[in-house]
UniProtKB/TrEMBL annotation, chain B:
The gene is Ndufaf1. Its main location: mitochondrion. This is Complex I intermediate-associated protein 30, mitochondrial. It is found in: Mitochondrion. Belongs to the CIA30 family. GO terms for cellular component: mitochondrion. Keywords: Chaperone, Mitochondrion. It comes from Grus americana (Whooping crane). Coiled coil: none annotated. InterPro entries: Galactose-bd-like_sf, NADH-UbQ_OxRdtase-assoc_prot30, NDUFAF1. Part of the mitochondrial complex I assembly/MCIA complex that comprises at least the core subunits TMEM126B, NDUFAF1, ECSIT and ACAD9 and complement subunits such as COA1 and TMEM186. Interacts with ECSIT. Interacts with ACAD9. At early stages of complex I assembly, it is found in intermediate subcomplexes that contain different subunits including NDUFB6, NDUFA6, NDUFA9, NDUFS3, NDUFS7, ND1, ND2 and ND3. Interacts with TMEM70 and TMEM242. The keyword Flavoprotein does not apply. As part of the MCIA complex, involved in the assembly of the mitochondrial complex I.
Amino acid sequence: MRLHWAHALSRRLWGGWGPSQVARSMSRHSSRPAGDPASGAPARRDPPRDAQDNDRGPAAFAAALETLERIPGRRVGRLELVAAALAAMPALGVAREREAYHRLLRLLPRGPWVPRGPIQRLLAPFPQQQECGLQILEQMERYGVVPDAETRFLLLGVFGPRSRPVRKCQRMLYWLPRLRHVDPHPLPSVLPPPGLAAACLGLRRIANDPDAHITVYQRPVPDEGDNENEGSVQPYIVGAQSPEQQELLARHGPARPVFVEGPFSLWLRSTQLWYYVLRGDPLPPHLRTPQTPSAACTTPCTLTWTWSADPGTTMTSMWTRWRRVPSSHCAWRGRVTGTH
Amino acid sequence: MALTTMLLTSAYLRGRCCMHKLLHPSLGPLLSNSTSKLYSSYRRPGSQPEKKPSWQNIDFSFKKGFDVLKTQLSMLKKETKDYLVGPGGHPLDQYLLEQTRVLWEFRSQEDLNKWVISSDVEIGGKSEVYLKLGRNNQAALLYGTLNTEVPRDGETKYSGYCSMRAKLPMGSFARKKYYDWSNFNSLYLRVRGDGRPWMVNIYTDPYFSHQKDDLYNYFMFTRGGPYWEEIKIPFSKFFLSSRGRVQDNQHPIWLDKICTLGFTIGDKVDGPFQLEIDFIGLLNDRAHTEEFAYEMYEKNPRV
């Protein structure tokens, strides 16, 4: 039944927008690309004037919810509103903001969805509503948003203690703060945009040596007015070389070739970079200098027992297998990295 | 000979309850190709359920049965000899004193055949994964492309994963065998990645069938770059999960009955990935005294 007159009446009597209109405007904002004024056919009901001006992501999200926050109106359609808001959040760019989820949780009614008594709790009360709460937390988990004590407080008010969303929030509060710091080689939280800065970061990561020098060769900006090149980044070549690699290159005889290999891919979270390697073949065994164990060795000293009755025991042969000869790189790191 | 085939297949079917996702290498050629769906209890939404009874898929052929019997008998002979040498086929002093062990080394195609690769194509996704030998046959190269496009079947919400799992250790006549890693406390991997995070999964075949989806997981972060990385992951860091959900009741992994080790990538980033593995080994790190990395307090107390 389409009760247009009922919706219009409620709007006139109580003002503001109901949840269904908010949900519809949210889906419209997310489908319309940012900065594109009034694309497509005009809607049957005009959106509020302030939403037309703020067409950017977080502001559009805030504007869509603001009317409903100011005048809560009737307690219907909240589940659809939450579903539409969750679907629209990635497009509007607020999926990684905890505050956006808090605003959404504050729109849910506090009290009506709390089971009263142990018998009602036994009968799996409010399954759709609890599923809705779980979907909010699931989206937070998917985008790496760690819930707060405030999130837990809001969920307690809406769903009551011992409900599935509160249990899931407590679980997230246990695991996510631990699993944030599990990476032994973390990247900075804000990555530079793809370009020279990202390339330097990638090379510093690859070089594996804090003493490595990074060199940038970049064409200078031309003095004459070459209008199409003005403001653009001049082409560049970035390279990194550690002192050990310099030594190896100095010892490398000009009669033996060096090879440029690549491109190999390196991922910095969600950016892919490509790098090339200059390498030479390893020396034949009789020309190699014996390698001394590096001073910065972090492996603990292991006690290798040898059985006196059997001198050529399998223990030492297994240990030597791990100290293998560098096969195809300029410098081989014997240092153990990445101890978790 | 028909009796042999029936015995082998009945052993396979009995063991199927706890290994629903993992392949049986020795019995694969005995059954026809269409039974690959039998190995997994997952049925894609919208697909027809299996109507053919399982006994109709068995191939009653004398020649094949005879060949299988010969291989099984030779495996049994080898097992008896290993049993006489010592635990795990190695002498007793090695078992008592060892601090390192190399489990899987990738030097030839038969080393690669001990592993199974899979991706989200099983659930209708579009990721690709391939496994081949690396340069100079010195490492295994696991590469492919991750695609997080969700299959449109109305049920699936997330997609985009690729994995590589070791095949189950099988004794003669399709008996389950287990790895005993109780002498060690860390996993030692020599890998070269491209900067993407991986997850290491260990499956310990549980006694009860309702625990059949239990996996112990931990992360393996690769740096990327031309240098090889030697990654040590202590077993005390592995947390328990079931069907992909981290459980509330955690306990340290029991190392005496390990079935499989696996690597998974699912970091929600579309694009190609690459991992070279030189070898996978075990280490008894005497400096690592931690028993379990996670506090055992009640994670969902009565509120």
